[in-house]
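The authors assume throughout that readers already know how a fold can be written as discrete tokens. For illustration, here is how one protein appears when written out as sequence plus structure tokens.
>
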Amino acid sequence: MRTPILLSVLATLASARVFDSLHAVPKGWRELRAARSDDAIALKIALRQSRPAALEQAVLEISTPGHPNYGMHMTRDELRAYTAPSESAVADVTAWVRRHGARYSVDNDWISVSTDVGTANQLLNTTFSWYEYEGGGGPKLRTLAYSVPDEVADHVDLVQPTTRFGQLGSQKSTIFEMTIVDESVPAQLHAHVDLSGAADAVDVACTGVVTPDCLKSLYHINYTASADGNLVAFASYLEQYARYADLQTFETNYVPQAKGQNFSVTLINGGKNDQNSAEGQR
């Protein structure tokens, strides 16, 4: 009876494909301790997209001048149609997760898994431990290698956080000198420029400050924008927020003809719109 059982175990181990591995703990990190089997862990499984070549072609078309689709934009649903995995991929991978008793949810080409370390170790044939970055940031659950069964390996692109030891953090400013300008004298903020198009027509003031007039002169922008304008979207990170008061100050000092224009904010995944932050995003 023991031989068949042993062969079955060996066959199970052999069917697991190593997806990623590190030869050592990355520089700047150190292992604190092995994780307990009941430590909670959240994993993200990226499923292989079914139409990556078609997505690449669509992006090339909308970004190639002269193409009929140039300048067009895909809707969220159109983009998700390109990135969606096959139905069999979703079925096989969720069945694999279910067999280990882990909770999960599916969002297009991502599967979010909530479980404990003991289950995660079995799921990925690995051993999670707690690691700490020497620069701070708190302990992180990571591993040096993980595997995925052959039966689902062709459906999976990656599972994280596992072997990624990246450390997020705000970056230091590269501004070493700063001059405080009296906002009560906005005329001082304006650099006089000549829009004649001559390469040497840019006012010397533009070497010390950047204004919309400076940019127009430097890049020879000599047309009048459409009254309908353009839409621009940007994301705010690291607790920096776009502030209405900052935009109004900018319009008053630099682009008085645009005074009164504003922006709207869409909050995603618990985001904030802090108008009283210490530092706005300018």
In short: Residues 2-14 form the longest helix (13 residues). The CA atoms of residues 58 and 258 lie 35 Å apart.
